[in-house]
Amino acid sequence: MEQYKQDFIKFMVDSKVLKFGDFTLKSGRKSPFFMNAGGYVTGTQLSRLGEYYAKAINDNYGLDFDVLFGPAYKGIPLSVATAMAISKLYGKDVRYCSNRKEVKDHGDVGILLGSKLKDGDRVVIIEDVTTSGKSIEETFPIIKAQADVEIRGLMVSLNRMERGQSEKSALEEIKEKYGFDANAIVNMQEVVEYLYNKPYDGQVYIDDEIKAAIDAYYEQYGAK
Fold first, then answer.
1. Strand pairing partners for 68?
2. In angstroms, rounded to a whole number, what is the distance separating the alpha carbons of residues 195 and 165?
3. 134 noted as active-site residue
4. What is the pTM of this model?
5. Number of other CB atoms surrounding residue 208 within 10 Å
6. Is the pLDDT of residue 56 over 70?
7. Quick check: is 118 catalytic?
8. What span, in angstroms and rounded, lies between the C-alpha atoms of 167 and 195?
9. Can you tell me whether residue 121 is helix, strand or coil?
10. Residue 152 pLDDT > 60, yes or no?
11. Which end of the chain is more exposed for a tag (fewer CB within 10 A), N or C?
12. Burial of 221 (0-12, 13-18, 19+ CB in 10 A)
């Protein structure tokens, strides 16, 4: 596993963004783990988060693109932090763009925040986590309605590796439905592999009990 992935797993735990226990997801599923990117709240956390996204985007898509699109609301700080990190780490300037939930009819009018989209722009979409793919259903038509752009791919922080609306994972469904690639900084298999029965900062986050709960969860909801 790449070093930045190991560091990102520790970073999620340190930031209390990735938690283990008993959680009810928006989908209604009972899950033994929960990830909430809204837990990144400090300047240092956002700076580091942007760097992890930047490295994963470079690994998966390279830097031959023009715009980072972060869907409202959580995608807005993600796109800003990652655009800054790409500039810092790689000396490459990309624009950031997000959508508003409501169209603005005065001042900076329209549905977009940040850079406007132009015909021919190459776009990478950036999100926190995708469980069902519903957010892309909303985001994709917004982007395509603004300009004739090429979507290079989607990057999320964690691939939960569970079924979306079919037997396949949400990321696989996105690839099939929309024709662009979808990847994550890390997936849950890598998280379990790294943390299982290994003390980190004086604590074992995935012990035998949590591991059994995760295995049972994937027996029921895991993607094929």
1. 96, 124
2. 29
3. no
4. 0.92
5. 10
6. yes
7. no
8. 27
9. coil
10. yes
11. C
12. middle
